[in-house]
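Q: Sequence in, structure out?
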Amino acid sequence: MALPATAQSSCTLDNGYAEGLVSYVAEVESCLAVSRKFEARAESALFAATNGQRANAGVSSLNRRSSLDRAARAHALDMAARGYAGHDDLEGRGHIYRMRALDRQVLASATGANVAVLDANATPTEIFEAISADSANRQNLVHDGFTDTGLGIAKADGRLYVVQMLTTVDGELETPLPLQVAGATNITPRVNQNYFRTAGWNLSDASGNRLAGGTMMRMHDAAIDSQDTGYLDVLVQLDADTYVLKGPIVTRQ
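A: Exactly. Output:
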């Protein structure tokens, strides 16, 4: 991911990732680049086991999406560094925030996640069994609407911190949306199902208040306060129904 020149950051996780979208992404990318705590083979084994379970259930295999891997690994690393377990980090940022911050093209309608903490010596089979022991996790594993996944397993202090993200990716922006927008920025969505018609877009703040939107696929930075972030949603229609696809988060340059 290309970061603004002012967004250089080192990895210091004692107090979690930095606040502010640009600083947050910069520190996440820095931490992912330098960490040696990830269990890549166990991640691959969990991916294979998940698709094996889906095949047994008669549902389509998941794609492994690199941006979701980064989001899952970022959360696993933070949990490992600060010794906690949860779907949100200690600052309250959840899986959807991480996806929308780190994937600059995604348009997604649904997201789920599985989180587990195990002994560091747990085998891939034991990891999968631990996840599958929870009924909500089992439903996530075979949910027929999910299309993509990302995996992060970090080892620290005798524990494995496991994060599995599952998402329904319904489309992408044609070009990645920059973290910081300046002036007018075109939004060109590509929706996977051709029976959907693009109906417009909305930009909301973190509390869900609408900042801007319209049917012309063009965003202007004046919609975003200099200290705020905007959450892009793309609206698509099927007959009389309108659906919301969650896109990237942006801030003003």
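The CA atoms of residues 27 and 225 lie 23 Å apart.
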